[in-house]
Amino acid sequence: QVQMQESGPGLVKPSETLSLICTVSGGSFSSHYWSWIRQPPGKGLEWLGYVYYSGNTNYNPALRGRVTISIDTSKNQFSLKLRSVTAADTAVYYCAKDKGSSGWLFDYWGQGALVTVSS
Amino acid sequence: DIQMTQSPSSLSASVGDRVTISCQASEDISNSLNWYQQKPGQAPKPLIHDASNLETGVPSRFSGSGSGTDFTFTISSLQPEDVATYYCQQYENLPLTFGQGTKVEIK
């Protein structure tokens, strides 16, 4: 059974960089796509991007080049960095795993980490 | 980006009722659609992939149909534990996009 856990600061100042790590346990880290998805309070879901176990990435253009997702296979972790944050980036950030056998179905998720952008 | 529009945004129904949620894509996405259930304070849970295929362990009262631009999610007999927000998600093109969600409550 795969388990995923987000970690990182819960409060970030405007214009600074939001950094989160997702630690994965209980399953194979290889041959999967690892994504970050966020949900502003009371709102819907937004896919931010993915990193493949090989290190290849793809990002949502809506983030306007502010996002970097990287992977450390030796630690079974992948990370999110979102630069130049504003209040609009306040959200619950989820890490999620693509099932692999079905088209982009997120079958495992972390519990979510609330990140508030405020001075 | 492909826009996904769900309707209604919320609904209230009685236990045992049949509940239907619509999801419309801004362009043809074939059957590249998934459905998720999100209960308050929890991460989304996958229910249906490829528009109509039930995930393992998901009760058979849940079903999905459709292709192209118009999709339907159905709960055949609403149960108290089905209170949640339901999201569709397309994967025909990147970026992956979700509908805005449909909140289902018990009347």
Sum this structure up briefly.
The complex is a heterodimer of chains A (119) and B (107). Chain A is mostly beta strands. Chain A contains no helices and eleven strands.
Layout of secondary structure:
The complex is a heterodimer of chains A (119) and B (107).
Chain A: E1 3-7, E2 11-12, E3 18-25, E4 33-39, E5 46-52, E6 57-59, E7 67-72, E8 77-82, E9 91-98, E10 106-109, E11 113-117
Parallel strand pairs in A: 2-11
Antiparallel strand pairs in A: 1-3, 3-8, 4-5, 4-9, 5-6, 7-8, 9-10, 9-11
Chain B: E1 4-7, E2 10-13, E3 19-25, E4 33-38, E5 45-49, E6 53-54, E7 62-67, E8 70-75, E9 84-90, E10 97-98, E11 102-106
Parallel strand pairs in B: 2-11
Antiparallel strand pairs in B: 1-3, 3-8, 4-5, 4-9, 5-6, 7-8, 9-10, 9-11
Describe this structure in words.
With 119 residues, chain A is mainly beta. Chain A is 0% helix and 51% strand. In chain A, strands 2, 4, 5, 6, 9, 10 and 11 form a 7-stranded mixed β-sheet that branches. Chain A has a 4-stranded antiparallel β-sheet with strand order 1-3-8-7, with no helix packed on it. The N and C termini of chain A lie far apart (39 Å). The model of chain A has no long low-confidence stretch (mean pLDDT 95). Chain B has 107 residues and is an all-beta fold. In chain B, 0% of the residues lie in helices and 50% in strands. Chain B has strands at residues 4-7, 10-13, 19-25, 33-38, 45-49, 53-54, 62-67, 70-75, 84-90, 97-98, 102-106. Chain B is globular. In chain B, 38% of the residues are buried. The A-B interface holds A 35, 43-47, 58-62, 94, 96, 99, 102-107, 109-112 and B 1, 32, 34, 36, 42-44, 46, 49-50, 53, 55, 87, 89, 91, 94-101.
